[in-house]
Amino acid sequence: MKRLLLLAILLSSLMPRCMAQTLDIYFVNAPKSVLPLLDRTARLDLMDLYASGLPAKAENLYGGQSELLKKTSDYLMLKTSDAGTWQLKVLTAGHDTLLVCIQSVEADGVSSRISVYQNDWKMVKRDMPHLTNEKFVKNSTEVTDFDRQRLMPTLLHLPIQATWHADEPVITFCLSLDSLPKEYINLAKELTKNISYKWQSGKFVAQP
Q1: With helix as H, strand as E and coil as C, how does the chain read?
Q2: Count of alpha carbons within 13 angstroms of residue 83, beta-carbon side
Q3: Residue pLDDT, tens place only, 56-88
């Protein structure tokens, strides 16, 4: 299977840029600046194991374990390390293909960074949803005014986490509550909401 994938990647390098490529090829061809922890051999091993229904784990360049958690025709989620994940979503914009990556790191909560590339992995500037912490806060009759006032300063400084939906072009943002004391988490859930956008006609559209 790995030999077949290598052949497909070789053939893809001969294709015109306008022709479609598969997510597997985008993943394998991602430059080191985009995905530094895994070399090409490790990426091929991950896809081979995943396709075989086996735990898709491989040693990364730091000596730790990386794992391919989920893969569809246009989405991939990779656990890069014990504290990090990397997601890839393939989007279309007219005749163009965009590769949108979410790099998330867990440290006092999960913080995400979004990068957008052309299909040859050249970074491009695209209008992405810009969210501030205030937009995640909602009213709740389940939380007293005292508890709301006590939590607000903390909520306004929490990191923002982003996640792609595996089966549709929808990205969801939320405040990462992992760093909160356990007694505050339920209150924080009552006071916050997720915000989702769907990729439609070459732009992100807010979802109700």
Answers
A1: CHHHHHHHHHHHCCCCCCCCCCHHHHHHHCCCCCCCCCCHHHHHHHHHHHHCCCCCEEECCCCCEEEEEEECCCEEEEEEECCEEEEEEEEEECCEEEEEEEEEEECCCEEEEEEEEECCCCECCCCCCCCCHHHHECCCCCCCHHHHHHHHHHHCCCCEEEEECCCCCEEEEEECCCCCCHHHHHHHHHHECCEEEEEECCEEEECC
A2: 7
A3: 999 999 999 999 999 999 999 999 999 999 999
- CA-to-CA distance for 28 and 12, rounded, in angstroms? 11
The radius of gyration of the chain's CA atoms, rounded to the nearest angstrom, is 19
Question: How far, in Å, CA of 191 to CA of 150, rounded?
Answer: 12
pTM: 0.87
**Residues contacting 181, CB < 8 A, separation 6+:** none
Phi/psi at 113 (5° precision)? -125, 135
Q: Are 192 and 184 in contact (CB under 8 A)?
A: no
Identify whether the C-beta of residue 139 lies closer than 8 Å to the C-beta of residue 192.
no
Q: In what order do the strands lie in the sheet with 195-200?
A: 160-164, 170-175, 195-200, 203-206
Is 38 a residue whose pLDDT tops 70? yes
